[in-house]
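DM between two lab members

TW: hey, do you still have the phosphoenolpyruvate--protein phosphotransferase entry open?
JB: yeah, one sec
JB: this one, 768 aa:
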Amino acid sequence: MLSILRSLVQEVNSARDLQEALDIIVSRVQKAMGTEVCSVYLLDPASNRYILMATEGLYKDSVGQVSLAYSEGLVGLVGSREEPINLEDAPSHPRYRYFPETGEERFRSFLGVPIIHHRRVLGVLVVQQRESSRCFDEGEEAFLVTVSAQLAGVIAHSEATGVISGLSLTGEEARDVSFGGVPGAPGVAIGTGVVVYPVADLDAVPEKPTEEIDQELELFRSAVDAVREDIERVANRLASQLRPEEQALFDVYLRMLSDEALPGEVVNRIQEGVWAQGALKQVVQQYVRHFEMMDDLYLQERAVDIRDLGRRLLSHLQEGEQKHLEYPERTVLVSEELTPAMLGEVPKGQLVGLVSVKGSSNSHVAILARAMGVPTVMGLVDIPVNQLDGRELVVDGFEGQIFASPSSDLRAFYQAICDEEDELVRGLEALRDKPCETTDGHRVSLLVNTGLMTDVVRSLSHGAEGIGLYRTEVPFMIKDRFPSEQEQREYYREQLEAFAPNPVTMRTLDIGGDKALTYFPIQEENPFLGWRGIRVTLDHPEIFLVQVRAMLKASEGLNNLQIMLPMISNISEVEESLHLVYRVYHEVREEGYDIHMPKVGVMVEVPAAVYQIRELAERVDFLSVGSNDLTQYLLAVDRNNPRVAQLYHSYHPAVLQALVRVAQDAHSVGKPVGICGELAGDPGGALLLMAMGYDSLSMNAASLPKVKSVIRSVDREWAIQLLEDVLLLDSPHVIKSCVDLALRNAGFGRYLRPARTSTAALAEQAVS
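TW: and the structure you got?
JB:
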């Protein structure tokens, strides 16, 4: 059965369209199970009816003509119950529905299984038999369930391809086709999709020997020179939009092209008698396999860079020019794997959005997108990329969704969001220099999360009172080696000077999990529960000491540095870290630097820390909750995984209860507590956190004006009552709805981001 299933999946995957895929399914399943009938009914989202789409054994004329309401007949019963139904005598069942045009009155035995993809019922797969005495056995039922599960993704992809082309299952025009992924960079963009394909196909290169070794070497070296010039040109084009540390991402490409890197290995293989294209293919595929086998997400992303370079080199070897792309005025760039070089090909001012099927919020493209302020969605599942070229697209970088061929209502809905965002920014400029204080005088500090110098100007213009989280790993991630003490010192000084005299909280190096360094690989089966954060730097004190020394020297004359320790899970980690910080402080003072001892705090992002707040607070100067990681760990959900990202919810009762406890315990021993994460940048979340007693909220710069406006317009008692009300609720979605309703009733509906909801609901909102 396994070989039959494997063959079936391969055959369906190669089908040209949905109808051919369905015809293959019913034909092969009928033959494999030895049944008289196999049929597929798909649920049409537009009409919410099951349509007979393919059959082997019923009358062919009934295909496309027979349809059932959502809960009608045995097919509807299978779909609504979402489980198999196996009957010896189907006509005697009270839910049996007879369709004379199918000729199914001849068949009595019935087995139907639902086709489910990501919790959505796509349809029902049915087999039938003439003999009433035959009941499909457990093995046959298990086989059909397995077939259904294996084919669900294929059907979803094929269905999406058809729908995105403009037609629903009924042949009617389809609009508002949505796909969910992972937010890469916040914001909303509306534009025209431009699909970028690989410039050359390495997999298609044949293996063959050569005797013209010198000629092949010359061809390859010319290709390397040409690609190097291409990358330098792209880097120069983007130079005005990026700071040096971001532009250094292109240096990674150029270093890969150095003689001692990839080209050196290709040259060796050419000298062994392999033609240039074949040698390039062998080396690139070896590199790609090496990186893709790694569990670490960041290192996996480097396979994308290697593959992109290989394709560009192959393109020059084949003397084939890239297809000339026309970039519309509002371009949404789409690709299976977006690379930094692709961004630079779009004329300045025309790139409004990015969509990448592969990749995560940790990829080079996501880092650049956030720096450039381009709304981005990454990691989309089952999206037919080739159907998006030339289509109008809506990119929702807040929620990680895209919409293809939006209706006028949906387009208007999102255009209003874009306009409101622009208008809000302009309208809230007057608040920049005003304190974040409630109407009854309760003061909250609003800080920003940053990692790139491009964030600084935006942060200051939005009235940030300092940095609540400076991600020091960013300068480490964009290099191919550990940055020196002097290089780190320059990075840190730039941030400290920009915000002086306001505080700048620098988190010590936090790698591991979804953040890794190419030159310091961490290979683990479960990196989120492994060697990361403070665990790494304490095991490598030489890294920690150099970093702290650079921070302290950078603070001379400014004295606005605060140091924060990530991923603390026990007291001994704090004590060991403090010992090293004090040691460096005295050493730097002895070197003649006139510095003050900075405040040192810990991040609360591991559940274990939630239950040790008093003990931790007695040893440090402040605490700061990393709500994103704390939420992931409390809920056991990787929010970068599109298959479970919907389970990640900052308003989960467990998360809110933990946050309340942290604030209460910290204040009970007289220590300030802040929070950095998405919840702090959400107006409703900020109100709840303020009511809990958090002293500072740190967020991305774009969220700051809205949060300040809301807090300045309410009194704290109102927020405390709202908090008490929602803590009695047991559903994160109900809690979010209650908070949103309270904000709307208070006149702040314009600050709410679009909720992750159905397109029908969005269109309804747009019309109303």
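TW: got it. The chain is about 45% helix and 15% strand. The longest helix spans residues 138-164.
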